[in-house]
Amino acid sequence: MKRIPHTFTIVFFLILIAAVLTWIVPSGEFVREIINIENADGSTSTREVVKSDSFHYVDNAPQTWQVFSALFNGFVDKADIIIFILMVGGAFWILNNSHAIDVGVMAFLRRVQRLKRYKFFQKLGVENIIIALVMIMFSIFGAVFGMSEETIAFVVIFIPLAISMGYDSLTGLCMCYMAAHIGFAGAILNPFTIGIAQGIAELPIFSGLEYRLFCWFILTAIGITFVLLYANRVKRHPEKSPVYKLDEYWRNRAAEQEQNPVVYHTPRTSWIIYILISAVSIYLAFIHPTTQISIGNGTSNIILFPILSALFIISGFVACRKSVHFFILDILFFTIFYLIAGVLGYGWYVLEIASLFFAMGLLSGIADSQSADSIAKLFLAGCKDILSAALVVGLASGIIFILRDGMVIDTILYGLTCSLAQTGEVASLGVMYVFQTLLNIIMPSGSAKAALTMPIMAQFADLINVSRQTTVLAFQFGDGFTNMLTPTSGVLIGCLGIARIPYGTWLKWVWKFILFLIIIGFLLMLPTLFIQLPGF
């Protein structure tokens, strides 16, 4: 069996290939202009887009020594994601030291075992139901508000759960990361892809919802089926898992929990933290009595913080009476609830989310009666444990800098766009789709890619009698699927680093499924050419 190269090795070779391309591909660029975009809430914002028929060649800018500065530039460009990974890693290390997640997983599995007494659950398989429900939830998150970076924080929760149920780390990673990105590709109301692309294409924001909802259902069903089939094979033959040896780390963690029985207790500091969080939640309920939740074109005013405050006061009291472990789990759950509220209601991104998880880690450590020095050491240990994931995110981002500084991305875009003029409707759609898919490998940012490609693609669609909505769908699918295999995606590399899965192992395991999804995506676009669909 051939040894799979280290992730750092693979990414650095990709940087070298990108540098070689800057010597082969002529440099060129489009002229950008600032336009006004009407948002879903009626407000306007400005956005930089490509000006039509503005491509021109420029002096070549071949990259040489820049391959060695790519890591530095990548770190600067992805500083928010890198810091996010370090803060989340440190926070969860503090939380994990309390063994709260292990206690929660074991308590959950004991309850699951009780369900097996019922024939209905025996027939369906309780573990299958759990995997399906978790994947549906994360797929909805990806489709509705574009969950992507947020999945990094959930990897350390679902991998131990998957291991405890007899599966592997790939299964746990798929439950959150893959599910969210399948939903991201399905994009029912994703403002970061659909919202921007439709705005630039001058389409009503989130129009064509009915057919996209159908596409999301098909893609999510396929994703769940794939994961369930794989998970059941692993459960029957664990040694056949491609990460069986790598999962020794996670199995050892589970074994340590079994060998060291938990002493259930509630220190005084837990009650102090309970009172503190209750007071803060009541304060938030007063200053934010209602929260405007925006999903697609619809907005609703919900008394969200008062509800969360009341629920925490009740559940936190019950959890403290049981054990500090259950109270820390309660803190974790409400951290997730506030994360969802912040993303949907207040536009939170990695800064706010990292700060939220950092606070969760500190509060968990204090609740567990850890000293200030102990909490600091645990946080640093968590950062050290996750540092390799942060480093590879910066290195992978360097690929983009080489191509951008070499000024070849626009040339590649222009050349592929010109080729569309000589094909029919179906072939043109296929070329657009393949182009968006390949471009996503070197430019994983959906919003940046929409600003670059949609001004040209939307106008070209008019010339070949293809609906602009179909062009947006091609962009949506092309942007979504390859996010799960491109080494330039900081989210993918970050999740793999936390899961301790080498990029080469992941690529070898997932590429056939991603190719299958790409084919399904093309088949789902074909009806838009021949059937009159709402919004198309």
For the biggest sheet, the summary is: 2 strands, antiparallel
Low-confidence stretches: none
Question: Would you list the SSEs in sequence order as H and E?
Answer: HEEEEHHHHHHHHHHHEEHHHHHHHHHHH
Q: Strand order within the widest sheet?
A: 1-4
Based on Cα principal axes, name the global outline. Answer: globular
How far apart are the first and last residues' alpha carbons, in Å?
A: 50 Å
**Mean pLDDT score:** 83
What's the gyration radius in Å? 24 Å
Number of separate strands: 6
| Backbone structural class | mainly alpha
> How many H/I helical runs?
23
Helix content: over 70%
**Which percent range describes the beta-strand content?**
5-15%
Characterise the protein shown here:
The protein is mainly α and 536 residues long. Helices cover 71% and strands 5% of the residues. It has a two-stranded antiparallel ribbon with strand order 1-4. It has a two-stranded antiparallel ribbon with strand order 2-3. A hairpin with a 5-residue loop joins strand 2 and strand 3 (44-50). Helix 4 (100-115) crosses helix 14 and helix 9 (191-200) runs parallel beside helix 19.
